[in-house]
Specification:
single chain, alpha+beta, Herpes Virus-1, 3-stranded antiparallel β-sheet, 43% helix, 11% strand, extended, Znf_RING, Znf_RING_CS, metal-binding, zinc-finger
């Protein structure tokens, strides 16, 4: 059965508004661009791993690097010997921001996901209907295992039914505004009635069951797509850890005026590799989380 704490929280509107207001205030801070202070629009990930909004990226890349209002002076010995260049820096860590000569930073997918979840909580929570009731009854709770939304009565009935069936998985009923996941099934574009559940190792492509029987993938080795996604995230985590280590090495050498071109090339190549893999692999992983 639903715990008394959950029932009381649902029935107590003052408590709900107070908790949600505090939660929303913290998220409002996290969702503001550190450069312009505005709410994030299509956040992107800087090489220093801090977020920035797309309008700021467009502004930075559309103006000459020496016209920046917030800048530091860097001696450029490779392109224009003897001349000073001005670059705008990250307000959080003093890392150089993109400019007209830079590549566009990759999308910040984790922050984008949080923005979507925040929108669901703040704008659509009181419009989500119970998945069981035939009439339009507002949902107030969600099963964190099934990811189904219920009114209070259906939520209690669902938990009682699970208890009677003695299922091994623990089904936790929580207030809808505390939901951290949304139910979503990614369907195959070629076979819209089938979900993407397999990963073709030879083609490095996420596929459905019908795709694996097609001429393109027939006979190829495959694995569970979720397992492949977890392996990809593990690889990406190691790459990011290596990038942080190299960045610390760069900052240490820079502070000691002992910066070497070989170290710079190593760091640059690592970040380029991360940028490419980040876009490719996170796009893949987001299908299953």
């Amino acid at each position: 059965m639903l715990s008394f704490g959950v029932k009381d929280q649902i029935n107590n509107e003052d408590t709900q508004e107070q908790n949600y207001s505090s939660f929303n205030t913290q998220e409002d801070k996290d969702f503001r661009c550190p450069r312009c202070g505005q709410k994030m629009q299509e956040p992107r990930l800087l090489p220093c791993l801090h977020p920035i909004c797309s309008p700021c990226v467009a502004e930075l890349m559309s103006k000459p690097i020496y016209n920046s209002s917030k800048s530091i002076k860097i001696q450029n010995t490779q392109l224009e010997c003897g001349k000073n260049k001005y670059y705008e820096i990250c307000p959080l860590c003093d890392f150089q921001l993109p400019n007209a000569n830079s590549t566009i930073p990759p999308p910040h997918y984790p922050l984008q996901h949080r923005l979507v979840m925040s929108a669901i909580r703040s704008r659509f929570a009181n419009k989500i209907l119970c998945d069981i009731c035939q009439d339009e009854v507002i949902a107030v709770v969600q099963c964190s295992t099934c990811l189904r939304n219920f009114c209070l009565d259906c939520g209690m009935e669902h938990q009682q039914q699970i208890s009677l069936e003695l299922k091994p998985l623990k089904h936790s009923i929580k207030p809808l505004w505390e939901a951290t996941k949304v139910r979503r099934t990614t369907l195959c574009q070629q076979h819209p009635t089938h979900a993407l559940r397999f990963y073709c190792i030879a083609c490095q492509q996420v596929t459905c069951k019908e795709c694996m029987w097609s001429n393109q993938h027939r006979g190829h080795a495959s694995e569970n797509a979720v397992g492949a996604a977890k392996r990809v995230i593990l690889y990406l985590t190691k790459m990011l850890q290596r990038a942080k280590m190299l960045l610390n090495k760069l900052l240490t050498q820079y502070n000691r005026d002992a910066f070497s071109n070989s170290t710079f090339d190593e760091i640059r190549d690592t970040f380029i590799s991360i940028d490419y893999r980040y876009v490719k692999l996170i796009n893949f992983y987001q299908l299953f989380t």
